[in-house]
Predict the structure.
Amino acid sequence: MNKAIIKIPEPSFGSKLTTIILDLEKIRTRFLMGEIPPYIFFQLKEIFQMLETLGSARIEGNNTTLYEYVEKVIESGSNIKIDEKQQELHNLEKAIEFIEKNTNSDTKIDRAYISELHKIVTKNLTPTPKGEGSKFPGELRKHNVKIAKSNHTPPDISVLQEHFDNFIEFINKNHPEQYQLLMVAIAHHRFAYIHPFDNGNGRVGRLLNYALLIKLGFKVQNGRIINPSAVFYSNRDQYYEKLAKADSLKDSDILEWSEYFLLGLKNEIEKIDSLLKKDFVRNKILLPAIDFALERENITEKEYNILKYLIKKDEMAIKAEELEKFGIQTSLQKSRVVRRLRDKNILQPTKPGGRIYTIRFANSYLLRGVIHFLEKEGFVSDFLNKN
Ligand SMILES: Nc1ncnc2c1ncn2[C@@H]1O[C@H](COP(=O)(O)OP(=O)(O)OP(=O)(O)O)[C@@H](O)[C@H]1O
Ligand SMILES: [Mg+2]
């Protein structure tokens, strides 16, 4: 058999895998933001992208913990010099931005696209084997490689181009709808199997999941948060074992891999969807987070009261005039208070330049409490904090 050819095996209709695919199909195009105001939704999304980024980097051996990462995000305004570990995280954030900007249902995820992702991911990093960068950013490897902790030998360079071309064709082909999610699952394994680059294959492969899911209509730009790698980083050994088993390219092993990947994806999506309810965000995350900030004296009593009032409002936003409720009378005083809250980065306009304000928590010290309560509610894998 020509190993460069990629086929989608037929799952049996009564299998668990088919049920998982049917469930995912139900959520594929559903619009979700629902009742949460967009300015709250997008901050939650920023936070989940942090989790995705950190998870992907940690699989790779980056030992930054979530707590450290949170502190860096809070400090990030202040031009600190960044080291390799942070550069790696920064690159992954940029790669997610690139994907969101450049991907829709018509996008061809071709060689140029993947090449760009690889360049972004390895930017300013020391090339392998010393660091997490690449000797050939954006280019296929020019030598044979082994994958650490694996018995699989990726394709020889003499056939690498053929494997890669087939891969590009496979992910851009018009697969009938019911095979499209299987395509994404198979593509993730196949990309790792081919190992087209000298380094960064895992990171680019995980980003490709995100890109392909957007292409297939999972509406992440407006209304949904997906965290496709969470299933991998919640148990890295299992991830590697499942990949290794699929290296046989046997239909049954490829289907087993697909079931693992798609079940993980489904569980992750369902979990995040449950978060996107206003009462949940208000009562389980934001109100506790400001209590947390007050206890640690990150905010004053007065700031606390204003934020609490804001969070409890239906639209989770206020106008400066409403500060009257807190004994702030003149418009000069009101704008001074607003300015101070904005300087502290805990208040932001709901729209750029607007005069209605909402709570800012995605990169202020309120983030500490928000992460704490997301963790308490089961949205943060232990893996992100292990040393
Ligand atoms: N048996 C295997 N078969 C195929 N792919 C594998 C296997 N074991 C691990 N991998 C993949 O190879 C990746 C490592 O490759 P590489 O070092 O090029 O990527 P990276 O991005 O630098 O590191 P990492 O993927 O660990 O973040 C793993 O993350 C995983 O995705
Ligand atoms: Mg590596």
In short: The mean pLDDT is 92. The first strand starts at residue 318 and ends at 319. Residues 60, 132, 199 surround magnesium ion (ligand 2) (CB under 6 Å).
